[in-house]
User: Fold this.
Amino acid sequence: MKLSNRLQLILDHIPHGSRLADIGSDHALLPTAAVESGTCVSAIAGEVNTGPFQAAVKQVKESGLTQTVAVRLGDGLEVLKPGEVDVITISGMGGGLIASILDRGVEKLSGVSRLVLQPNVGEDILRRWLLAHQWVLINEHILEEDGKIYEVLIAEPEELRELEISNETLYKERVLDGGIVLTTEWLLRFGPYLIQRPTSVFHAKWKTEIQKLNGILQSLSKSEQVSAEEKSESIRTDIKLIEEVLICLLKDKQ
Ligand code: SAM
Assistant:
């Protein structure tokens, strides 16, 4: 089965021999491919909606994998029993929804050794959730497919990463060449790894963010509320910082 580059990137970060749960699996393409390729020994496809659930059941049947890929109907992590899987993937939803799925099923995460998450928006919300719940980001990627930009975040429990990278070092304030201070807040927004190896897709994402912020500024300029000016000032500060960071990263590359 040929996966999209986005789903393939997620699959590439599932350790060999894992027992996988893919939550919000839709057509169960990822768990099916994970077992078919030999990456996973078993998989669970979780779906809250009956349409995608039935599509997943059909996909698994047609692939002849009903013995190794279970399809379960339910909300978030409630479809899992404690200790049943090693890796959980959640992709193709907003960062806020992914964080809420993790939050509501936090007790199911004990024994899980890796999360591979792909938020469509709100990546910072997810980084904040991981930081607050002692999960360490061990890597992250950004890719563009069909005109959309996606980020993939890979995290492991802090206790497993004791001697290596820690959240404390990952999000520690950094000073870029030119004296630009990247606070923890900005590292959560840019992504602590993505900013270290900025690609053309990273630049494209943040140029689009600047355009969005300029759009908000324009709307705010029509408002007569006092709070609108305060908000505008804060947005102008953000735009200035993003622009400075992008210029600085480009200079670093030359
Ligand atoms: N994960 C696939 C991917 O990345 O291509 C499908 C993404 S699809 C856009 C999002 C899926 O998540 C939908 O099928 C939706 O029904 C499911 N979903 C949304 N909230 C969910 C929840 N709380 N629990 C389980 N599934 C959920």
